[in-house]
Specification:
Layout: H1 3-16, E1 23-26, H2 37-57, E2 67-70, H3 71-79, E3 82-84, E4 99-101, E5 107-110, H4 115-125, H5 131-139, H6 143-152, E6 157-159, H7 163-168, H8 170-177, E7 182-188, E8 205-209, H9 214-224, E9 228-233, E10 252-256, H10 262-273, E11 277-280, H11 286-289, H12 294-300, E12 305-310, H13 325-332, H14 334-342, H15 354-377, E13 379-386, H16 387-395, E14 426-428, E15 433-435
Parallel strand pairs: 1-2, 8-9, 8-11, 9-10, 11-12, 12-13
Antiparallel strand pairs: 2-15, 3-14, 4-5, 5-6, 7-13
Length: 458
């Protein structure tokens, strides 16, 4: 085990009360970076495996509980798990989702993959989608001022900051003071559910209201260990530009539900009442605005387990701000630190969303730990995580180990199966984490959004 992986794993175990002593890492090679990104991601994946192993051991104490993670293969999974069998050049990013220089010598990045965010940003800028027009508008503005204007106008943007500047910022200071995972106990719940060693999460109903990468990675892992995951999206929703190519929905059913209507609210109420876990990554306050605040959710489903994600933390002036991995990298200093490491001085974009993936598997670990805790205590809980807090964990953590840099994408090893996906047939990298004696598999292919009806099975 590398020193960095050991330290990150120890932090995770302490935050969630998980025994991580049986974890072993294998393989050499890291993502080139000034921070220990490979080890952070591998540690979060290992932590989720350790939580599953501990839950399974509660059924059969003498059974095997070892967890192993292939570090390079984990990094390859985070980069791109799938390998199209037909050539494709589809990019996950809209051309506007990039960094633009500002009048005060800084940089500003937009998240414009979603049409409503793009429209809101263009309204503030007063331009068309022409890149030259956008660049000229940004070049006339100071970074903090245009960032604030775009956010106030309903768009998503982040000005470049150094790590030191973020630490001195009120939001950076607030995030640094937050726990890695904030856990709040809720009410009691009578349940006769017990784990089965061969499929530890079988029988658990997980209501999935997550988007893009972090949340879907969490619910995908739960599905791989047997949970019934039902993803709920609003009408006509789709991830932009084919993000995930089916990977986001592996093992899950996907339904459409308009919670803004009376019928939709009634259906959601019933789904929530019968759910064991609610995992959501909507902007803070979004469910409240739909009539389902925290107290209402617990009244509908007493003892419910919630795992919830925000971009910029749960305290501080930006606690309600919309954000994404790339924007959080700009805000927290990661992007400029990458530019200094690369020698360009510009914001650097790594070839994978390490904050998203690490946060997703931290959420999965928190979910399994909460299930085990409810089995012991009879009480539900709410666990809160944020992209910004995970970014702080990385940038304030151990230095990168001296290892050869990985060449991405990895060529293998590949799963022998061929899967359907929105971009045609694909093969996938072999899953990099193993829990001894417990198979990890997806009982459903990557279903299209809205392909199932919104109800539980069984």
């Amino acid at each position: 085990m590398t020193a960095a992986a050991q330290l990150f794993l120890g932090d995770l175990g302490a935050a969630l009360g998980i025994d991580v002593g049986a974890v072993k890492f294998s393989g050499t090679g890291v993502l080139g970076a000034p921070y220990a990104m490979t080890d952070l991601g591998a540690a979060c994946l290992a932590g989720a495996g350790a939580a599953v192993a501990e839950l399974a051991a509660s059924v059969e104490a003498d059974g095997p509980t070892g967890v192993s993670v292939d570090r390079p293969l984990a990094t390859g999974l985070f980069h791109r798990a799938y390998r199209p069998l037909r050539a494709t050049t589809r990019s996950p990013f809209h051309p506007m989702s990039r960094d633009f220089p500002t009048a005060d010598g800084r940089w500003l990045r937009f998240q414009a993959n979603y049409p409503h965010l793009r429209a809101a940003t263009l309204a503030v800028l007063g331009t068309s989608e022409d890149g030259g027009e956008i660049a000229a508008a940004v070049a006339r503005s100071k970074a903090d001022e245009i960032e604030a204007a775009v956010v106030a106008g309903g768009g998503a943007a982040a000005a470049s900051r150094t790590v030191a500047e973020w630490a001195a910022h009120p939001q950076g200071a607030a995030v640094a003071a937050e726990p890695l995972v904030a856990i709040e106990q809720t009410g009691p719940r009578a349940s006769d559910w017990t784990p089965v060693r061969e499929r530890p999460l079988a029988g658990l109903r997980v209501l999935d209201m997550t988007r893009v990468l972090a949340g879907p990675m969490a619910t995908r892992l739960l599905a791989g260990f047997g949970a019934q995951v039902l993803r709920v999206d609003p009408p006509d929703y789709d991830e932009p530009n084919g993000i995930g190519s089916g990977d986001l929905t592996l093992g899950k059913r996907c339904a459409v539900l308009d919670i803004k209507t009376a019928d939709g609210r009634a259906t959601f109420t019933q789904l929530l009442a019968d759910a064991d876990l609610l995992i959501h990554g909507l902007r803070p306050g979004a469910l409240h605005g739909l009539g389902f605040d925290a107290a209402t959710r617990q009244a509908i489903s007493p003892g419910l387990i919630e795992i919830t994600l925000s971009a910029y933390g749960w305290t501080g002036p930006w606690r309600d701000r919309r954000g994404f991995d790339t924007l959080v990298q700009n805000s927290t200093g990661m992007a400029l630190a990458g530019g200094a490491w690369e020698g360009t001085g510009k914001p650097y974009r790594w070839p994978l969303s390490i904050i998203d993936h690490s946060t997703g598997y931290l959420m999965a670990a928190a979910a399994v730990a909460a299930v085990a805790r409810r089995a012991r205590t009879g009480h539900g809980s709410v666990s809160r995580v944020s992209l910004a807090r995970v970014a702080h964990w990385l940038t304030s953590g151990p230095a990168q180990d001296d290892e050869a840099q990985l060449e991405l994408p990895l060529s293998g090893p590949l799963d022998p199966a061929v899967y359907d996906s929105p971009i045609g047939p694909v093969r996938r990298l072999r899953w990099p984490m193993e829990v001894a004696g417990i198979p990890f598999r997806f009982d459903r292919p990557g279903d299209p959004f809205g392909s199932s009806i919104p109800r539980w099975i069984g």
